[in-house]
Design brief:
The chain has about 130 residues and is mainly alpha-helical. The chain has 4 helices and no strands. The chain has one domain. About 75% of the residues lie in helices and about 0% in strands.
Amino acid sequence: MAIYGTALLSLCLLCGLIVGNLIGWSIGIEKNVGGVGIAMILLIVASDRLRTTGRLPQPTRDGILFWSAIYIPIVVAMAASLNVRDAIGGGPAAILAGTLAVAVSFMLVPLISRMGHPTNSSDSIGDGDRS
């Protein structure tokens, strides 16, 4: 089961790393900028597109779920540790930018979690008297 989906994951990772390197090169640094994130987005889009067209059998879905649960968090953790090391060496501006990005991400979690959920009229604020 785990071997299914590996080709799709590998293709998305390679494409993400290439695009991340191109972004880094275009802004004048010799680092990968967002390659793992781009790979994850590509994997989500590709697997969803294949699933909706009916070309993603269940064993392949299970394999993608396996790799998502195991591989992607490890790669993200490795990339994050490298980014932290570079940020500390880059000075206070890099540390401030990273801290602000994390803070904004944490603040957006409640907003994103409400997206896609229908709101009940009794839960909304300002819908009349509640006596």
